[in-house]
Write a structure and sequence with these properties.
This protein is an alpha/beta fold. The protein has 17 helices and 25 strands. The longest helix has 29 residues. Bound molecules: alpha-D-galactopyranose (GLA) and zinc ion.
């Protein structure tokens, strides 16, 4: 695949030409050109428009749009429309519509109304995508392909139909080989759940009581694999016709599909970034959560990503979010770039006048007359475009890695222990502490290489395999520093409790130098720990640690276990393994990270600690580009570091509200 011809693609819009009279297209193109647009994504929801009747394909409208847009030198991303199967298909094969957790059918009238394993659906997708790819593969104005749209979206509790059930059985057979093996790995001896054959296993719909956690874990893993397979079905067709890049728009921490797996089927990852969502108050949006989503996206393929949908106005369907403040849309787009975007496509070009998304605002208002959003983004795009060319492909060089695991997320979603215990929130909270200290972080899968990182943070490693245990031991043994936290090592990969010793069990006991003989689920209690002679709040959980070879760093300050260790450190080989047996307050976490930072280089620079200001960098061989993003409503000043030179001439060490300063430093 040759991407070099398209090196100058950095900004785009999501456009729905079918929604507007043709007479308007030219005006749109002219305005887009003035805005600084390079690329346009189209067609991802328009199945009924381009195959209005079964087998009658008519892509002439897309041809026309592409032709017009090419006069303005825009490149095109073409979306396959499988997220919106047409009414004629549903009428002919109602079984395409998915079945929910309660066994009820979900009907036509929105989108995503399809079962991804359904054979009829797959057949029709097959036919459409073959035609589509064949028709457009040689069009030099087509830059690449997007398959479906936000796979997993709206499918939280779908689909439990007979077809999915059948696929689940096949998936289990492939995983376990024999039914006896499955019985053992699921612990079906409990509550008389033993199976004699795979055909007795059902898609786990609503039950009278709680369900088997091992079964549900497999169901979630199966659902993720089904989406990857659904994607591959289309990508393999497109690749028969075209060697242009294929991408998919991810949704940050959404968990229906394992994005590390899906990323393998893509030339590059895309992500949809909507900082506003439906929040009524931007104060509720943690900047660090926005940043974390972007860093996770970069981590899924360990390369820069695209934003395929960047917020460009008020968000909203039936209810709406707040209006972004002047400067905020550009600030958020700049944040996407700072964390690794090589191209930012804004959703959407213009507010739609009909349908569910009338109030999901675009760059242009309903009237089509450019206003504040357009003017602000125009200024932003024109200012940042030359920089985008320079930093294309540049990555940060981070020394801290946070492990993000879909398996842990699934297992703890099945059994959160405490109503406020969420694995993803734990991950985000640890990230938040590093973010507040301006310590840049990479997200890693459990399969990633850890060796280039000075510190690995792996929150709640609840499911533990021998392989993963060995990997953590080896990393620390070789000199790495590792933080493991509450509820690590509790279960095996099949979601069955481990018994090879006291928690954290197996080699983790040796690695961490502790034993956990007791624990307490902190229901409705705020606890405390004492760290460096000061009290800090903790909640959710308390692992009561007894020391083997570890040293205590903090003790509990409440309950019958007052004085018992809650945070420990153990020297293991050439490295150190920390254990945090509770959910620390942000204040405590920051103190703790600073303590570790005295020992190893984490890229912490205390001169840059300003509330609400992010310093993020990307670097190529010779230059580091530093983005200073002011999320505050007020101007802030700071002391810039040695070697930082203004990238944009007019800058200083002051950043105005919602502005971005950029510096560069020679390496
Ligand atoms: C998602 C989708 C878009 C659109 C926006 C706004 O991100 O990908 O098609 O629906 O949300 O709702
Ligand atoms: Zn189904």
């Amino acid at each position: 695949m040759n991407l070099s011809a398209y090196e100058k693609i950095h900004f785009g819009v999501d456009y729905y030409p079918e929604h507007w009279p043709k007479e308007r297209w030219k005006k749109d193109a002219t305005l887009m050109k003035e805005l600084g647009i390079d690329v346009i994504r189209i067609a991802e929801f328009s199945w009924s428009k381009y195959e209005p009747e079964e087998g009658k394909y008519d892509f002439s409208l897309i041809d026309e749009v592409i032709e017009l847009m090419s006069e303005y030198e825009f490149k095109i991303i073409l979306g396959t429309p499988s997220a919106a199967p047409p009414a004629w298909l549903i009428k002919k094969y109602p079984d395409v519509q998915p079945i929910d957790y309660e066994g009820k059918r979900r009907h036509f009238g929105g989108r995503h109304h399809a079962c991804q394993s359904n054979k009829h659906l797959r057949d029709y997708i097959d036919k459409y995508v073959n035609r589509f790819a064949d028709h457009f593969s040689d069009n030099e104005n087509v830059f690449g392909w997007q398959i479906d749209n936000e796979l997993g979206n709206s499918h939280g509790d779908l689909c439990y139909c007979d077809s999915c059930q059948e696929e689940f059985r096949k998936w289990l057979k492939n995983k376990y080989g024999t039914i006896n093996e499955l019985n053992e790995k699921w612990g079906t001896v409990f509550w008389s759940q033993g199976y004699r054959d795979f055909d007795e296993i059902i898609a786990p719909k609503i039950t009278v009581t709680g369900r088997n956690p091992s079964q549900i874990l497999d169901w979630k893993l199966f659902c993720s694999d089904l989406i990857v397979d659904f994607h591959k079905h289309q990508s393999s067709i497109i690749r028969r016709y075209s060697d242009k890049p294929i991408t998919h728009n991810f949704m940050g921490f959404a968990n229906k599909v394992n994005y590390f797996d899906l990323a393998e089927d893509l030339e590059f990852v895309s992500h949809d970034q909507y900082p506003g969502l439906f929040h009524t108050d931007f104060l509720h949006v943690r900047n660090s959560d926005l940043a974390a989503a972007l860093d996770l996206m970069r981590g899924t393929k360990k390369q820069p990503y695209w934003i395929m949908e960047q917020q460009s106005g008020i968000t909203g369907w039936e209810i709406m979010g707040r209006s972004p403040k002047p400067g905020q849309l550009s600030l958020w787009a700049g944040q996407s770039i700072a964390h690794g975007a090589d191209c930012v496509v804004f959703f959407r070009w213009r507010n739609c006048i009909y349908g569910t998304e009338q109030y999901w605002h675009g760059i242009l208002p309903h009237s089509g007359i450019p206003g504040r959003n357009y003017n602000e983004l125009k200024e932003f795009i024109n200012k940042f475009k030359p920089l985008m060319e320079k930093i294309k492909g540049a990555m940060p060089q981070n020394k801290v890695g946070i492990v993000f695991s879909y398996n842990q997320e699934y297992a703890l979603e099945i059994q959160p222990h405490h109503p406020d215990f969420s694995y993803t929130e734990q991950v985000k909270n640890y990230y938040n502490a590093f973010h507040s200290l301006n310590i840049p972080v990479d997200f890693l899968s459990e399969d990633s290489d850890f060796e280039n990182y000075n510190l690995i943070v792996a929150p709640s490693q609840y499911l533990m395999s021998d392989k993963l245990e060995d990997k953590y031991c080896e990393y620390v043994n070789q000199g790495g520093q590792l933080i493991l936290t509450m509820r690590s090592g509790v279960k095996d990969e099949n979601n069955i409790c481990r018994t090879s010793g006291s928690l954290p069990c197996g080699r983790l006991t040796e690695l961490l130098g502790i034993e956990i003989l007791e624990y307490d689920c902190l229901r409705d209690v705020l606890g405390t720990v004492v760290f460096e002679n000061k009290n800090y709040d903790v909640d959710i959980w308390a692992d009561i640690l007894s020391l083997r070879t570890a040293k205590e760093l903090a003790t509990y300050g409440f309950e019958y276990y007052q004085g018992e260790p809650s945070i420990t450190v153990n020297e293991f080989g050439r490295g150190k393994a920390y254990y945090i047996g509770t959910n620390p307050s942000k204040e405590l976490l920051i103190k703790f990270i600073k303590l570790i930072g005295e020992d190893i280089d984490l890229n912490l620079n205390s001169k840059l600690l300003i509330d609400g200001v992010e310093f993020v960098s990307r670097q190529d061989e010779n230059t580091e580009y530093i983005f200073a993003l002011n999320h505050n409503e007020k101007t802030v000043s700071f002391e810039r570091l040695e070697g930082w030179v203004d990238y944009f001439e007019e800058q200083s060490s002051k950043i105005k509200p919602y502005q971005i300063n950029v510096y560069k430093k020679s390496l």
